[in-house]
Amino acid sequence: MNRGTYLLILLFAGCSASELEEGPTLYVERWDAQQKCFRACGEVPAPPAELGLESCADSSVVPGESCQLRQGTDLLRVMAHYTDLRFDNLKEVTAPTLKMQLDGASQGSDKTLVQRHLKAPYDQEYAAVTEVFVPSTPGRSLTLLVGDGTYTTPTPALPLTVPGELSLRVGSCASNICDGLPAGLGEEELVVSAPAGMGREAVVYATALGQTTKLELALEREGDRLVGRKFLSVPDAPEGTWRFEGRIDSYALPTRVVNLTTPDISAHVEGCDSESCEAVAGIGTVGIVVRVPATLRNRQVTIASVLDGIEMPTSTPLELTEREADSFLGRKVLVAPNQPGSTWQFRVRVGNLLPVTPSAHLLLRGPRDARIAFVGPTITLSQVDFSNPASPPRRAAREVLESCRTIGVAVMLPDEPKKTVRVRTSLGTFSNGSSEQQGMLDELGRLLLPLQLGEEESSRTVILQVLTGDVLRGAATWKLDEVWPTGGQLLAPRTTVEVGQSGIPDAQLFGRLTAPNGAPFPPGTQVSLSLQAVPDASSPSAACGPLLPPELLNCQPGMGCLLAPRTATVQDSGEFIIPLTRGLCFLGQVTVTARARSGAEAAPDVCLGDRQISSEPVPVGVVSLQFVAAP
């Protein structure tokens, strides 16, 4: 008899040593969740029904069934029955304890069995019962040992298996790899599920953007499962992954990898519906409109310019201030970089997401030069067609009527609306009394200024310049009509030239023309004169020799002709001079006429530029060349 048997003899009254050599009979049953009762497990016997312990009706062992216990899941009922032993007082029996071994190593703390009263005729036999979950610690086999410290009765080694249906779900993602979750958009529910009997907490590690976050989920009983839930904000990571790994006790949860995609973010360049558009370098502006989903958490937006494929180092923030249905949107106006010839694009960044690039390519060009038109004083700015300006009104220098000396100067810089410009003139004055005036262009880049010509102006060319700051942006000229005289005369006493034996002496004809306003012609003005020489028919010859043949009377100057030149320049004295060719032998008359405007026949309020040229030259005077014999 061993030491354990001896101790039982001391405890159990009326027991012989031979009755204790076998120890208690052990019964092990597993909980059947479907039938909600305990049933036999494989080779381990179930308690006989006559003992009065409630078990599944079909609790008999299925032949060949393997009792593979699910770790951390299966609930076991263990019963120790001291068969064929009767005790005088069952309450004095020391309750045995249950120990568990995983692969031969002790697991957890001991658990005391609770006495169970049996039906007659076994009501004087001692039995004790306890329920215990299979440990969740990984192992290959479990051995149950019942004893009181002096003896131990083991069960056969029961094979273990990992519990099924450990699950981890992120939103709708319940597979290893899932696609199509927009980054930074709202929240997704993390759900961990395990069979009842597992640990009470799950630890999950979520990794995105290279950072790992530890998540602890308390597991609550839902039916026959343990479930933990937590809502997580979807990271606003660039296109990458959101990875989940975790454990319940020592059991690994399924790994989930969620592929993150860029949410529906749009960026549009206003006024550029095609891929290729134009913008004025340094002056032009474009509007960028950005639209993001309303559920996007990080709505910090920046816009970077890209020139010829190179992103500029600085960016411009944009605020999403408008709400439309399920979106937030914002607009930003950007000034074109001052780099003519470059291609301008944009990169829009929202939070940490990948940048969005609008399809528009803007070719940067230099600003267009100023367009200048001279218009009548009654023309309004809206009537000026800068693309095809009409011919400027005719105006004559030395205009008599003041109303005929006003002209409109229209300027257009189509790329620079609201710009301040400087306009200069070489002739006349603006409304400020100066030859230069500043003005602001309207919203279409246009400006109209009145220009007043002076009555004394002698120049026929108006030169106009347009500047922005000190930069010349354009120039134009306007030709005034020629100053036509209204009359003239040869000056006495030069109406007769004496011809001697040596022919015509050094002789000049002097005359004066009258300007349209009655004043002398301005100095430096070139006038076109008509000179006609008629020989004296009564003097076929003269003492100076043969008379000048008719074909040399009115030919081109410089060829031995009588008359030269036919265009005279008004001198400072206001006179013009016509030289005669010295040494020629000619007797007769020279008639001087000038082209003029028919001012006398026109109405008084008709501008000189609108009057017709006289069809008949205005007589200026007649010079007679007579032979005078030498004394």
Overview of this protein structure:
This protein is an all-beta fold and 631 residues long. It has five domains: 3-161, Sandwich (Immunoglobulin-like), CATH 2.60.40.10; 167-261, Macroglobulin (MG2) domain (Immunoglobulin-like), CATH 2.60.40; 266-365, Immunoglobulin-like; 371-479, Sandwich (Immunoglobulin-like), CATH 2.60.40; 487-627, Immunoglobulin-like (Sandwich), CATH 2.60.40.10. It has one helix and 45 strands. It is rod-shaped.
List the helices and strands and how they pair.
Blueprint: H1 3-11, E1 25-32, E2 37-40, E3 69-70, E4 75-81, E5 97-102, E6 105-112, E7 114-115, E8 127-133, E9 141-147, E10 152-154, E11 158-161, E12 167-170, E13 177-182, E14 187-195, E15 201-208, E16 211-218, E17 220-222, E18 225-233, E19 241-248, E20 251-252, E21 256-261, E22 266-269, E23 276-280, E24 285-293, E25 301-307, E26 310-318, E27 322-324, E28 327-335, E29 343-350, E30 361-365, E31 371-375, E32 406-412, E33 420-425, E34 436-440, E35 446-452, E36 461-468, E37 471-479, E38 487-490, E39 496-499, E40 508-514, E41 526-535, E42 567-569, E43 575-579, E44 588-594, E45 618-627
Parallel strand pairs: 3-11, 13-21, 23-30, 39-45
Antiparallel strand pairs: 1-2, 1-4, 4-8, 5-6, 5-9, 7-8, 9-10, 9-11, 12-14, 14-18, 15-16, 15-19, 17-18, 19-20, 19-21, 22-24, 24-28, 25-26, 25-29, 27-28, 29-30, 31-32, 32-35, 33-34, 33-36, 36-37, 38-40, 40-43, 41-42, 41-44, 44-45
Give a quick precis of the structure:
The protein is mainly β and 631 residues long.
What's the alpha carbon Rg, rounded to whole Å?
A: 60 Å
Q: Averaging pLDDT over every residue, what do you get?
A: 82
Q: How many helical stretches?
A: 1
* Number of spatially distinct domains: 5
Beta-strand residue percentage: 35-45%
How many strands appear in the DSSP assignment? 45
Helix content: under 10%
Termini separation = 196 Å
- Which class of secondary structure composition applies to the elements? mainly beta
